[in-house]
Design goal:
Number of strands: 19
Distance between the termini: 56 Å
Radius of gyration: 18 Å
Structural class: alpha/beta
Strand content: 15-25%
CATH class of one domain: Mainly Beta
Helix content: 10-25%
CATH architecture of one domain: 3 Solenoid
CATH topology of one domain: UDP N-Acetylglucosamine Acyltransferase, domain 1
Shape: globular
Order of helices and strands: HHHEEEEEEEEEEEEEEEEEEE
Largest sheet: 7 strands, mixed
Strand order of the largest sheet: 2-5-8-13-16-18-19
Amino acid sequence: MRALVEALAFAWLLLRRRVLGFEQGALQPLRNASPRLVRKLLVHYGARLGEHVRLHAPLVIHNADRSFAHLEIGDDCHLGRDVFLDLKERITLGARVTVSMRAVILTHTDVGDSSWKERGLPPSAAPVTLEDDVYIGANATILAGVRVGRGALVAAGAVVTRDVPPGMRVGGVPARPLAGDPQAGRPTSSS
């Protein structure tokens, strides 16, 4: 019976997508669907998901451009509630990555029609990569073009503006090595 209900829910989502378009018909259900249905919808529209990926709704996806092909999530990953993924460019999560609740991963900057465009902030976009065994704390923000190295930890509330070396623990705004981190003296690859 449960399989039938899930199949009907998925068929309803596909019908909504056809009638309402991708934005309302495919993206909106990610905000309140069951984790199994979210997974099925992501894969149906091009995302690559590994085995044992745990997704918690609501999942907010922005700039999907009619597919989720810019999203790749490795085996045994966990995405908490209210995670925000900007798919203007590719987001790649390695194996065993945890992205805690309300974390934000951005792949682009665009100031729209504001004067900031003339003042030196043109639109830009770059992929984000979280290597294997990375932990992203609650409410952390990862900016476009950042690579977080294998086994690194980003503390809750941090804003990561540059690459984080493997194994390093960072926190703060902007994110810097945390006190007591044995790698705190090593420069980052973006320094």
